[in-house]
């Protein structure tokens, strides 16, 4: 008899949980075809949960890139606390273990009448149901002079990859005593606490390597997520290093001058040694092109099935959607993706549908050994998604609790990326 | 050891009373004054009926329900038996999982994340996911 390694044994256990979700009546039917467009957290999770949970579904995942680097935890990389490789994941397990056809191409168009996805290579993909996880795009012209060329000088680093590496390089080569200017966009944007976590972790890097440097946060808003927790930590860990200027102090960021490496607000011009400009956001390009976004720039969906309310038969998950109280985060995308996969399985097999369990949780680093956590459950309500129960770290909780959250965060990353990429 | 801990029934009773309080939360958020909490006996009677229903008529559906809730667990807990600072929940008994969830819900075990999860689940949902995870553990034992 074969001896079981822990890894093989574990793999089967995970698969067993997913297999148990398989609808019963479906076996006799022909395989339904589901196309998932976009291999980020939302898209990969939908593909995985559909493929593992419902035997009669043939899943194709369309994603141009062969590797995916997570935006979450990339602030640890910027601070030199994690390698870029540790943030990077492939699609091999989804292909091998779950039988998902992973096509490295991009979707150029979708014909919802003929039910065909046209790929950039010219190939066509027919489907019974299609799920889009298009992520975010940047609003054009929100900041004067901030174009594709400017991004190579003043990176946004808000989609993990070359931009993140560029920002890391700039921070490393910055002289001690320089000013790091971080431009924060208006709501809604991907991962609300992340700009402030970035300020915190870059401060921890400066403290270790360039202690005379300063961080200037130019915010488009007048309050932010976890403000009391962040500002308390900035006083404790990095006294005098981080200055946060809300929109009412500066009149908001209007333009950048790439040559002078300066950021121009209505009131003042700030010279930066390194500038990180995070632009205002909207749903990804394919969603815009397909008319799935409304005037807000984001995509309205049914809160139970995640089907577009503008284009029925197309489902959407992740940062691109209007999800009521749910923030735009990888965790939200993963949670929505599971709900969408279960809803699709019900639709395709005619089984009864249950109310989705929607959840978001996040670990946010204030320093390498100081993290706060929060968690909120959500319920579909009156056509949207509303927060139901919340629990969040407090300013006065013990340092042991914070250290534990920082340790847990590492374990969470490991488990979460396995849940997404297999 | 058993004598020192409150029984599951006691815990359930205690948090049901608490749950009636948190149902008032949306009203508080909307700016209304906090309404009076209804009497405990009434709350218990209302809360008990769906559980009886689930136990008799929807046993099969409960397995799917347990599986779908287990999918929520999988966002943080590895379901392959591995654990790296977040403990494995595979291979634990149904009773132990239920007790842990109730303790999180009461705030007796500190974790923001587990508290929010436990508060979002009804008794029957906690029972369903505990049963489901315990069964996975048993099935997964190598021959």
Could you characterize what this model shows?
The complex is a heterodimer of chains A (422) and B (143). Chain A is α/β, with parallel strands linked by helices. Chain A has twelve helices and 24 strands. Chain A has helices at 6-19, 41-53, 74-78, 92-96, 148-151, 162-173, 194-209, 227-237, 247-250, 285-289, 330-349, 399-421, and strands at 32-37, 57-62, 67-69, 88-90, 101-103, 107-111, 116-119, 124-126, 129-132, 136-138, 179-184, 214-219, 242-245, 253-257, 262-265, 269-271, 274-277, 281-283, 299-300, 314-316, 321-322, 358-367, 370-381, 384-392. Chain A is globular, with a radius of gyration of 22 Å. Chain B has 143 residues and is mainly α. Chain B is 65% helix and 0% strand. Chain B is built from seven helices and no strands. Chain B has helices spanning 8-22, 25-29, 40-57, 59-73, 94-106, 112-120, 123-140. In chain B, α1 (8-22) packs parallel to α5 (94-106) and α5 (94-106) packs across α6. The longest helix of chain B has 18 residues, at 40-57. Chain B is globular and about 30 Å long. Chain B starts with 7 loop residues before the first helix and ends with a helix. In chain B, 34% of the residues are buried. Chains A and B meet through α1, α11, β23, β24 and α12 of A and α4, α6 and α7 of B.
